[in-house]
Design goal:
Layout (H helix, E strand, L loop, with lengths): L6 E4 L10 H9 L2 H5 L6 E6 L3 H9 L3 E5 L6 H15 L5 E4 L13 E5 L4 H4 L6 H17 L2 E4 L2 H11 L6 E3 L17 H9 L7 E4 L8 H13 L6 E4 L7 H9 L6 E4 L7 H6 L4 E3 L8 H8 L4 E4 L3 H6 L4 E3 L4 H9 L6 H8 L4 H22 L12
Parallel strand pairs: 1-2, 1-4, 2-3, 4-5, 5-6, 6-7, 8-9, 9-10, 11-12, 12-13
Helix pairs in contact: 9-14
Length: 394
Amino acid sequence: MMAGQDLFMVADQWGPEASGMGVYAYEVARRLPALLCPGGFGVTVAVRADAPRLADEVRAGGGVVHTLLPSRVSNKRKLPEIYLQLPLRARGWNCYYSLDHKLPPPVLLPRLRIATVMDICPLEFPAEYGRLKRLYFGVQLPRVLRTAELIATGSDHTARKLVDMLEADPKRLIVAPLGFDSARFSTQHKPGEAGRLFDAYGLAPRSYHLFVGRISPRKNFALAIEAVKRLKEQGQQPLIVVAGPRGWRDEADWETIRVLGLADHFRKISYVPAELLPALYRQSRGLLYPSFSEGFGIPVLESLGCGTPVVVARATSSAEVGGPLVDVIDPLDAEALARWMQADHVLDDAARQKWLAQFSWDKTAEVLAAMLAPTLAALRTRRGFAPRRTLEQP
């Protein structure tokens, strides 16, 4: 085996239109080479051809880039690449690390294998997902959890689900909480941001509550509709701004809003430019995040970072992420949500800063690197050679 073939990491989720797991893959893959390569470990990262920024950052950190097909090609071409061609390419490495749940079988990767599992929503809410994804999570994911030597996840809540529902070995689980961009999502108002927000969407400061993400049944948008209905019956004039891509079969929700005469109380914003999103948080009265299930809940951190109160559902990863800063309700209690929307909420700034200080992408990568470094060193020792102190650039 060639020196330097320690870690083969797959960041195939990141591309021009990535979100969720793609953002996670980008933030981790761009940091780990810089943390591991100075220790003499060789790191190769598989990156999509249309993700040149990530490729440049991997190289800047001392890593080597293996180029994958671009994101825009069909799954018919990408799946064989991930499940057959890539593992054959990586057979000489000590450790194969997938930054999502797609992990080829052990027969193709005889050395140490690491998978990433952030949620099991397709098992909890199967109606929201296609047949192939349901089949994968029902059949293939349990195999991944049984055969992977390590499984990375983002919250204790998800880790408990993997153990309780899929019988994952708790000794194999690594919990590395996710981060957020604290420089962007801060309490520091930008000059003229309220005016720009009004010009773009007609929204006055503190005139609305925010609901972010792709609408689907697990997001519990129906609870927000019922809360608005109750507030209107009490003579209130609430406004909820829904920011995010088109929802999954959300036509029924919007039809319910129309039939109930609530159309004036909801505003749909399909796309929010990156420069306006922090202002959208800062100028709102609060973030409504009553999802039944989330893998982590980055919008909770973003909202709190902007100094904006948040309400979440009980017994979810979002409640774990928000800790003492968020208000928690029963996800079926529309009256509780209505009361929360009616009240004014103020965050304790010292407590907010102290709590949020534990969340950053640097810390996420540091937790993973602390797990990887001794693991990679042990693999090398087992094979009778020590880590190199330098790595030749590609």
